[in-house]
Input
Amino acid sequence: MRYSGFKVIKEALTGHKGWGPAWRDPEPQAHYDIIIIGGGGHGLATAHYLSKVFGEKKIAVLEKGWIGGGNVGRNTTIVRSNYLLDGNEPFYEFSLKLWEGLEQDLNYNAMVSQRGIMNLIHSDAQRDAFVRRGNAMMLNGADAEYLDIDQIKKEYPFLNFDDARFPIKGGLAQRRGGTVRHDAVAWGYARAADSRGVDIIQNCEVTGFRIENGVCKGVETSRGFIGATKVGCAVAGSSGRLMAKANMRLPIESHVLQAFVSEGLKPLIPGVITFGAGHFYVSQSDKGGLVFGGDLDGYNSYAQRGNLPVVEDVCEGGMAIMPMIGRARMLRMWGGIMDMSMDGSPIIDRTHIDGLYFNGGWCYGGFKATPASGYVFAHLLSKDEPHPTATAYRFDRFKTGHMIDEKGMGNQPNLH
Amino acid sequence: MIINHPLLGPRDSAEFTYLGDAKMIERPDWESETAAQDFYEYAYLRDNPAGIHRELWFHEGGDRSYLVVTRDTVTHEISNVELARDVARKLGRSK
Amino acid sequence: MSQINRLEGGQIDRNQPLNFKFDGKSYAGFAGDTLASALLANDVRLMGRSFKYHRPRGPLTAGSEEPNAIVELRSGNRQEPNTRATTAELYEGLTAKSQNRWPSLAFDAMAINDRFSNFLTAGFYYKTFMWPAVFWEKVYEPIIRKAAGLGSLSLLDDPDEYDKGFRHTDLLIIGAGPSGLMAALTAGRAGSDVILADEDFAFGGRLNSETFAINDEASDVWVQATIAELSAMSNVRMMTRTTVIGAFDHGIYGAVERVSDHLIMPAAGKPRQILWRIYAAKTILAAGATERPIAFENNDRPGIMLASAMRSYANRWAATPAQRVTIFTNNDDGHSTAADLHAKGVKIAAVIDSRADAPRSLDYEVVQGAQVVDSKGRLGVKFVEVKLADGSSRTIECGALGVSGGWNPNVHMTCHQRGRPTWNESLAAFVPGGTLPPGMTVTGAANGDLSTHMALKTGAAAAKAALGLKGRSAKTPTAEDAPVSQTPFWYVEGCSRAWLDQQNDVTVKDVKLSHQEGFRSVEHLKRYTTLGMATDQGKTSNMGGLAIMAELAGKSIPEVGTTIFRPPYTPTSIGVLAGRMRGKEFHPTRLTPSHYWAKERGAVFVEVGNWLRAQWFPIAGETHWRESVDREVTATRASVGVCDCTTLGKIDVQGSDAATFLNKVYCNAFAKLAVGKVRYGLMLREDGIAMDDGTAGRLAEDHFVVTTTTAKAAAVYQHLEFVRQCLYPDLDVQLISTTEAWAQYAVAGPNSRALLQKIVDPEFDISNEAFPFMGCGNITVCGGLRARLFRISFSGELAFEIAVPSRYGDALMRRLMDVGEEFNVTPYGTEALGVMRIEKGHAAGNELNGTTSALNLGMGRMVSKKKDSIGSTLSERAGMNEENALMQVGIQPLDPADKITSGGHLMAADGPVDAAHDQGYVTSAAFSPTLSSMIGLGMLKDGGNRQGEKMRLVSPLTDLTVDVEIVSAHFVDPEGERVRG
Output
């Protein structure tokens, strides 16, 4: 059922009786060409592009709980392509371009809002690093803009310019960055994929892989065995747990990242702002809540909740850079499981098991990657070769010494 | 969280910095024939269980001991805390 | 009297009248009032507007679960948006404004949205605003954003202070109703250390709202006696106005004490609020229960509220929303409200009870088996429409309607560690279940024990059990113990625009649409409709939504599930979570030993991590920083300069295995370094990437002093301790950071030796022969002051670093300046330091950026293959040793007038400029007064073999393209003769 202006008006006038389910609730079939494990943003996007771009048929997405319930439903909704390294920037720019066309592609309004993202600069060394990054972005065809202190004062007059411990010295802006209504991304991809015949099977937990002679034949699930020619895993924070069922150890640790939202406030923050001298970034949602976050708690965790020290650390950063928010109230805090890779960059690759493919290690940057991650994973699954923007995201890069380490923190996942 | 330091008693985890999997104690032999593979696995492949995890914490805001903390990554319950040096000795790293 | 809805009695202080303003109009109330109770007493029911449809709204509750009556409290830089009128304490001079309306609360133009509600159903955003594509950002979204939010921030800095504190206790009791008070009494009498915290400004909990008896007296007698007894106990800490916001790991609770929110402004020196971190061995959650509404058509008009709230207003605050009131209930509790209000002289128009066998009253009419199906009244309820048992209708005139659908235990904090509550069939409610936070017991109504007797009894029992108290309990006071059974009644059949979430405007119709469109799991429901996402966190709305979804899905409520609650329990100001860490106090400020001297000299300071360092020292006549820096560089290279380098990390390494230890952490050899010598050392991470560089000087056979960069001091120390304790636990070596213990100054330039000779005590020979380049030793200066001298150079000049105990740092600097006058000694700051190290080609933080290897830094050959050191094995990986690997180079513009930009990228002299043709980047750049040109260091592919090549430096970000030449990174004295002079 296409959404159109006509349809919306007609339904409004006739009691909304004509809207059907946004996606079906099918029983699993015995065999699929391609099974995607994980009904999050990346898994659903993969299914959509497999079907729409790569012409694949007989696709299923298996979701342990309800779709969109993992990190796509719990993040700070930021999209951007302000990366430095060759292995990353083209991929994220590809992603941003897909975001820009998402509504029309999906016939679903995910409220892609390109209100800009601005990284504040507080030291000369930081300026040097951001200039290098801004240049890398522009050389890759992305947009970047250096803001001097006067421009920042004009655009963000509420920042702390008077008694900052670390004075603002400039900023790197990406005007095409912004935010997206995160839940709607999952729903939009699900609805689009479903409309092309993809089976989205919720409450279907994968309990094991059936591997014969080094070939993956399908998956054992809470709803029985489901055969597949190819199986793609896109389960983010659960990557370690899932791949252990195929006896794989991953260059990934699972960590908790907390995020926060304030009560709804009348508009005050134009775009996304990141504080360069503390752990704090913030944007304001279309409903008016300040959505903000900071650093990982720092320890391995699957608990989906964090502790007070980081809550306080984030709010300290907020008050340091934006002392007007002291009287705003935090409404909710939550924690998600981040699949922190050993160099801070993702892995999208075949595994050593034929027919088994992996997409993970997104650290806390997976949301912005959703469209491109789905697209390139679909490319890999369909053509058995990596998409040109994702050739570096290999499993063996740690063995061969080709790390993609944006932050230069080395094999210490909680520092990425 | 509260870490019950073997020497200092219960301390707030905010006094500590986290390093990670206690297997980092078991640094491979550089002269082994399989050193390249061993070091790759040592540096990059970690146990990442949803459950009991042995991990290194550094008492940066305290006595500067490394501790091996046995903690459940699902409930955060801590069941054991040892001095990393004692663990390393038990693993035969004395010389 | 203007307070026409003021009743007799209550816990207000009629001797303390208070004046306040709401939307500019003046009113009077009394001490003990909340803003909501005072407004109701003044016959003001309309206090806000809903989020989406801008429907008129009055208070639904009398507590922190309030969705409707939220206002902007105070003004100017103290403006507090979204403040619940139901918990805001009245004070003299209070001002509040309604929010989310224009131009006025009574006439809100945006209420037009209500007319278009057919369009604005759940999920309408997702289906529309897509045509034409460009209109979303240009037209639709700005309109939606403008309508966003409820209250507004002032955009001014918060003027108040916030504090943080830590408390430890045997037993934390959350909630001071009958159960919490009884628990505190039991534990307090046993001598245990107890904290009793309640969000309210008065202890007593629900008892304050009731006309119950305890021990055959008014319950208030028992409450006051109990408070008096507890207050007299030194082991019991009583915390009113304190909301426990979250249960964190290992018995740590966050609690916010609102120290000054009931005052017009904090008293001098007092914080507005305090965040307490409470370490509790055991916890009793006695948080009570929240009444639940029944949804019916237009159930959101001002004057329609929970029956229990109406009772609170009448009994505690002596206020009624109207003089003629109707009650709608499905249980006996609703009748209590009718009885209490009747006793206070309020006219009960009728009690509408859905039960056919509802109890009758002699005082007022009870309509059995009937339901309220609709309401009328533009800005407040005027009539309710009742459907009688026989199907006929009746209209009842009233100014308020109390609704009672039963009670839900406040299980929130039991879920903070992801425990899930369980369904209790006889209460038709969730009760605590599953895994509670360790150490927590739940008592009283929060645990589903809804009678006062059970609250008292379970409170006492829980305290005994938690503390392991032996012996007989004191007698439980006598109190009502009416059996409680609740039948589910969530909504009136056939209703559609019946509000569940009143703030976010989620109606029964929206839940139905959500189900129809496949959003059926509870998380989908919440996200699709925004049910429970408003500032009240769904405390009165989630259950209704869940129940309706369960019915539509043909499942039981527990099958559909519950959403688990997350901290904070109620919205918490960001200010209090930050405490004092704001402004200049955001991070500690570390000052160097020469700081005050430098300040006297007029130095300009720069933040380097937490340090403040002198950046340059302007002198009279200099108008641009470059003049100062150029002068400092030139003077140093010509004669002598002094720079405070105390901030470099210093680690003392001692023990018979100290050399063996350093040999493992530096990639180059250290085992054989002679006593009295310094060596440059490069440390790698285990992944083979450079971690840090510095020097290590051997002061004795078993004593080294290691220096690190300023930025990496803490990380290197942590790493060295890891290697020492975890990898080589029995090496005889000890480490200690001595960064703050020694003031250390670089003395650089051709006259550096001559200058130092003036202060070094004569028995120490520092001539070139006796103290050559890379020498070090313990010396004394200025007549016996112990010092350390290192002959090392970052500038490329003949240079030393001299260290004295920190307390002498200021004096030493002043002495060096005094005795150096004859050499025109020049203090230099971090800028000149940076210029000279770039001129010399020394790598620093910009080069050691966490992605560069020894090979990239031009030090590949330093990595010893003859020994094991951290990082040596993995640095041999193929990817880190490719032919065209980045190598550090020097960069000079062809035209000396051209600029070099750090962060610029290097491209071939001609050809395309894009990422595919990127050859490298500039890491550092500076104007070199020595070469009269800008120069740079950079990383260039195969840079070791490209000296002399002409390239382009491009920086599209700063709109710069410069023709450059690749040169040696050693711009000054490449042979290193000066350092040896």
Observations:
- The first strand of chain A starts at residue 31 and ends at 37.
